Amino acid sequence: MRIIVTGGAGFIGSNLVWLLLEQHAGAKLHVVDDFSSGDFRNLAGFPGDVVARPCEELDWEAQFGPLDHSVDPVDAIYHLASITDTTVADQRLMVWRNVEGFRRVIRYALKRGIPLVYASSGATYGQVDGVMRENQPPAPANVYGFSKTILDNLAREAAQMGDAPVTGVRYFNVYGPREAHKGKMASMVYQLYRQLKNGERPRVFREGQHRRDFVYVKDAVAGTLAAGSAGQSGVFNIGSGTATSFNEVIVLLNQALGISLEPEYIDNPYAEFYQHHTEADLARAQEMLGYQPQWTPEQGIADYVAWLEG
């Protein structure tokens, strides 16, 4: 197999790369990543090719097109490259990089008839309560969510134009190995772990009752591969299907670390666009992709802490 993964040095992308190599021995992998939010250490020992260019600047035909596709075709593209910092306020930068990069990927995939899986986001739902379903109208509360909504629009149009599937995986709140390089944008699970590990009371926004669909990265990449093999166009929720409060996460982290530190509650500086509740309805992904998360929050957090402590 010959596969392109954009954002392959990032958090979810690098986990996807390693799982692809595990499941497809001898596959030829090309990572496209400008390392603006990735880290080379996530690819330590990677046996494939790396193209260090932003997707919106890359000439896809010049880079990948001249090869004889009848002999050495690209079998799939997984597009995970993106500005992932949801606090970025520069609207032009966010939309330009996320949307224009995807536009170039789509054009190349359509021309070559290559199946394409791309990263959408639960941020497209915005500030709503209750379970989030794919048929809900988008209501993004920040420009990051808006940019992902435009990706969904472009993908829907592209799926009608070509023969190969264009599939969106709408990630919810992913946590797990290989995210530490993200700093302040690493998951709340990682942020709270670091505070507890340093002997600090874990800080969460008042009163710790915000609930998130925390999905372990092992489930997220399994869902991504399921999207790649199902041959179904459309967008699908990839989450745990469970809303877990920050207070509950702190309890689970304390248990995994064998300590007991009470949370410290602070004001929320991002209240204007902060998602107080995320919860993925997985019925569509289960039916059409065969996606079924294997890690409960308790199991995922315990496994992650063991990896961090190892």
What are the main properties of this structure?
seven-stranded parallel sheet; 310 residues; 9 helices; globular; 13 strands; two-stranded parallel ribbon; alpha/beta
Write the topology of this structure.
Elements: E1 2-6, H1 11-23, E2 28-32, E3 49-51, H2 60-64, E4 76-79, H3 91-112, E5 116-121, H4 143-161, E6 166-171, E7 173-175, H5 188-197, E8 203-205, E9 211-212, E10 214-216, H6 217-230, E11 234-238, E12 244-245, H7 246-257, E13 264-266, H8 283-289, H9 297-309
Helix pairs in contact: 1-6, 3-4, 5-7, 7-9
Low-confidence stretches: none
Number of separate strands: 13
Mean pLDDT: 94
* Order of strands, widest sheet: 3-2-1-4-5-6-11
Which word captures the global form? globular
Rg calculated over all Cα atoms: 19 Å
User: What is the N-to-C order of secondary-structure elements (H for helix, E for strand)?
Assistant: EHEEHEHEHEEHEEEHEEHEHH
The number of helical runs is 9
How much beta, percentage-wise? Answer: 15-25%
User: CA-to-CA gap between the ends?
Assistant: 33 Å
The major beta sheet can be summarized as:
7 strands, parallel
Structural class: alpha/beta
Overall helicity: 25-40%
Subunit organisation of the chains: single chain
